[in-house]
Amino acid sequence: MAGYLAQRVIQSAFILLGIAAFTFLLLYLVPADPAVQLAGRSATAQTVANIRRELGLDQPLATQFLRYLGNLLHGDLGRSYAQKTDVATLIGARLPASLTLMAAGIAAELAIGLTLGVLAAVHRNSLLDRGLMIASFTTISAPQFLVALFLLYLFAATLGWFPMSGFGSAAHVVLPAMTLGILGAGWYARIVRSTMIDVLDQDYIRTARAKGVAESSVVLRHALPNALLPVVAMIGIDIGQFMSGLVVVEAVFGWPGIGQLAWQAIQQVDIPIIMGVTLVSAFAIVLGNLVADLIAPFVDPRIRLR
Amino acid sequence: MRVLGELLRRPTALFGSLVIAAVLALALGAPWLAPYAPDDQLFEGLTLEGAPLPPNGQFWLGTDTLGRDLLSRVLYGARTSLLIGLVANGLAVGVGLLVGMVAGYARGLVGTALMRFTDLMMAFPALLLAIVLAAILRPSLWIVALVIALVNWVQVARIVFTETTALVERDFILAERSLGAGHARILGLHVAPHLVATAIVWGTLGIATTVLLEATLSFLGIGVQPPQPSWGNIIFESQSYFTTAPWLVFFPGLAILLTALSFNLVGDSLRDILDPTQRGRG
Questions:
Q1: Could you give phi then psi for residue B69, rounded to 5 degrees?
Q2: Model confidence over A40-72: pLDDT tens digits?
Q3: Do A144 and B282 touch (CB under 8 A)?
Q4: Nearest CA in chain B to A198
Q5: What is the pLDDT of residues A145-170, one digit of tens each?
Q6: End-to-end CA gap in chain A
Q7: Pick from A271, A276, A221: which is nearest to A34 by CA?
Q8: Among candidate residues B6, B1, B93, B17, the one with its CA nearest the CA of residue B266
Q9: Cβ-Cβ contacts under 8 Å, A277 against chain B
């Protein structure tokens, strides 16, 4: 157990190192000179040269990378070109909003996905099952911005149940969380249906039914817990989906999180912010996968860690 | 032929195939089918107050905020979206096959290095990586296709890697090797044919992902650049009017949804048919 844990943690650390190297190199793909960007358009050649020396941009690439890594370990993600502030501060200020949205999104997708998946499995091959599976396929095939615009049109512009955009009250979180959740709900419904069908065919379920356990109890207490393992693994993977989705959803709904920060940075080609958000997201994904792997044995004791 | 027959017997796959055929025909025939040029700003395409027209007898799908015919733009947009879908996904599947096959066959240091690199790519949020790349490399149609391919090859590589490692253990590969066949011969003639099914399935499913990614990038304004229409950038250009002129979002949105759905339905059925162990499951 401890050996496996150590191995996974070391592996994750290497992936993070690789990601840091990758984002660092991205900076050099950009035609724009960071020193000129930071100094502003009206700066003198002397100012630009000073900034370049200050940032160590006159040093060899390897030295620069080590310095970049050192800064990362201190939580320093560089300075924004446009806002002239620390990227870490900017991201830190917006992280709570994004995390709130993500938590609401995960809750939405689990609630919808598990319910529909169990329903489809219990009524296997019925009209309901087929309808649900086609619906889940449709949500998987819909781009998130389209879902967002559709929900806005229906529930905000036409029915007026929820506000168009903004942040602050519980009503504001509903539509963006639904947008994030609908895509995942389709996946969960399909996976839960498929594992539930396997589980429901097993002998211990037949035994439970034979000894007269109520059907609802068979499904929810005997079968469902065993069908949840892939769901746990998926939540880990989901964090990656969500990080991507945040950019779109926060842009459409005007949600003041890191996705919106990245979106604004894209418009201004503010590379340090884009790099910072990418790094933070990649970090979240690696962490998510790690945690999903580590809690798997607690959800399903049949799994032994080696 | 058997596969095709079985495919067309499934209602969902039949529906998907018909939609794909229709979209292909409309895209190819756009220059003849489109009633107007896609970038023609028509005087009669706007109301006297300068607002876009809803669908009517003259403009079947309505007009956009510049008075351009939406039907013509959606038809030409199909060309862009499908072209990117095919090129980007073809590239992604090609690279994925190559990397997965080489890594699974060579193993050792090369194999480990390649697979650790795909692990690394998996840890990046796909859309975010595409956004970063597209924002950095001034977007054009080919850059968008390249960016999407760069993000999407990873999944194919992982699946092909797993299949190749299993294949390489089989006796016929060992026999081939003991007969003195070179690496290229074994990979090209004996491993690759077993991966055709995987390539077909991912070649189909991947187009759905690609079309969605292109639409999303274009919607964020870093995909295909106006005036060249793509389904995503038609919505991008008119998103602030979507409450007053919903048809500008509805029709291109429907095109994206139907196309992605169809490729998903056909790809999923192909996976069922080509991989009998998956038969009858979700």
A1: -75, 120
A2: 767 777 887 877 777 777 777 778 888 888 888
A3: no
A4: B281
A5: 888 888 888 887 777 777 777 776 77
A6: 6
A7: A271
A8: B17
A9: 128
